[in-house]
Amino acid sequence: MSELSADHHAVAELLTQIEALAPGSARRAGAGATRTDTPEAAGTATGAGAGATGPPAAQTLPGLAERLSDLLLNHCADEEEYLFPAVHEQVPDGGALVLTSLADHLSIGQYVCDLQGLVPGDPAFAPLLTGLSDAVRTHLDEEERRLFPAVRTALDPALLATLGERLGEAREAREAGGGPAARAGGGGGDERDAQDGRTGPDTAPKPPGDPAPAAGTPPAGAPDRATPEG
Asked: What is the span of the domain harbouring residue 119?
């Protein structure tokens, strides 16, 4: 649980940094703050002079967005593989808790896919970023308030320790292999695609375990947080 909770803190911190840099973000700093929507800050150094220098690539808006995407996709995949099966089997009302989180994963994965390849100046970038931010914050709050406390109460400490060891070993192997980020929600989710006629990616493995729905299929009865207002 400590690894997954640490992920939540890292995601929230990255979101705050991204929202401070994103042009048009509703959560950007006030008018008196230092401008961060310049080409250098946004990572689109058009028109920069030959001797101009900007922030390190990892601290630009595209760099931060890439880090957030990788963290989210790997975090969601790890929850689905190592945590959700135990929750479904041993936590009271665990099936409903898992379905809620899986629906969130589908929505988050779709936003991440939609943002890939966009630059901060793209008209779709700001609304998609706002939708991702809202979906992620809702998901973090849901898991921190309901899922994680239920897991700590219901699961045996020895089982939690075993799950943590398996998760840690998997993450070490992933880092050593330098592989790409996993896909959240069995392919990023297609529930928003169904609403606007697009076809989302379907290249990811299905989440293991009985509670997980088929790839790209929102769980029946799960709350729909996929489409932000406005």
From this structure: 2-44+55-196
